[in-house]
Amino acid sequence: MEVKPYNEKESKKVQVERMFDSISGRYDFLNRSLSFGIDIYWRKRLIAELKSLKPSSILDIATGTADVALALNALKPEKITGLDLSEKMLEVGRSKVARKKLNHIITLVKGDSEQLPYEDQSFDAVTVAFGVRNFENLSLGLSEMSRVLKKGGKVVILEFSKPSVFPVKQLYHFYFRYFCPWWGKLLSKDASAYTYLYDSVAAFPEGENFTKIALQSGFSGMKTQRLTFGIVSLYTGTKQ
Question: Per CATH, is 24-162+205-239 categorized as 3.40.50.300?
Fold first, then answer.
């Protein structure tokens, strides 16, 4: 079942863009507060997966306000490209990049993850943090990532998953199902965005199901690491 933020009439892609446009001004604060700052640790784990590769060109898909793109600079690549559907999220990200004086390294562009505007084998690494569950067509989005990745390149994906151990499972359900929409509505005036968060995670094909789709989309050696009691999964793979 496809989960959408607002209604059944418009495409998921259109609704996701509108959703992130609507919460862009409060997105960073909501991220920090709802995750209690643990999202910083999750991004560090993503970055650590690329250290041995030493990529010179990186594509960060669903880059949003550029937190991951900025963190990737720790790897000292020549070029980081961040791509996102939401222009308003990118505007916030561009301000952050400018403040860090990293415009010569980080470029943020509006684009569609399922129709990447890049040639085959353009990047040494591709990253996505909490974005693949928003793809309208997951297989197509993953295939596009594989297409633009160089042979021997690496993909690293962070995504929410569902913990299964008591009492984390029960606390997670209550927190994401009830508290997040209330807090999101209070601060961003868009409760639907945070109801969608829970629903989209619940519907997402995590773990082995996700790695099977990734393998069919052109990646190999897919591995899964569950972080923070299974709240988040870190997926890695390579392009052969």
Answer: no
Q: Is the CB of residue 74 less than 8 Å from the CB of residue 54? A: no
3-class state of residue 145 by DSSP: helix
Q: Phi and psi for 207 in degrees, rounded to 5?
A: 60, -130
Please say whether the beta carbons of 45 and 223 come within 8 A: no
Q: pTM of the full predicted structure?
A: 0.93
**Which whole number is the average pLDDT over 217-239?**
96
Amino acid in position 232: V
Q: What is the pLDDT of residue 188?
A: 67
d(CA 132, CA 45): 17
What is the reported pLDDT for 145? 98
Mean pLDDT value across the chain: 91
Hey, where are the domains in the chain? 24-162+205-239
**Could you tell me the maximum CA-CA distance found in the chain, to the nearest angstrom?**
48
Omega before 167 cis (within 30°)? yes
User: If you compute the radius of gyration of the chain from its CA atoms, what whole number of angstroms results?
Assistant: 17
How many CB atoms are closer than 10 A to CB 19? 23
Burial of 129 (0-12, 13-18, 19+ CB in 10 A): buried
Tell me: the pLDDT tens digits for 3-14?
Answer: 887 877 789 999
Q: Residue 170 is inside which H or E element, if any?
A: helix 168-174
- Side by side, the strands of the sheet bearing 79-84 are 106-110, 79-84, 57-61, 123-129, 149-160, 232-239, 219-227
**Cα gap 177→41, rounded to integer Å:** 23
Reduced to 3 states (helix: H, G, I; strand: E, B; else coil), residue 180 is helix
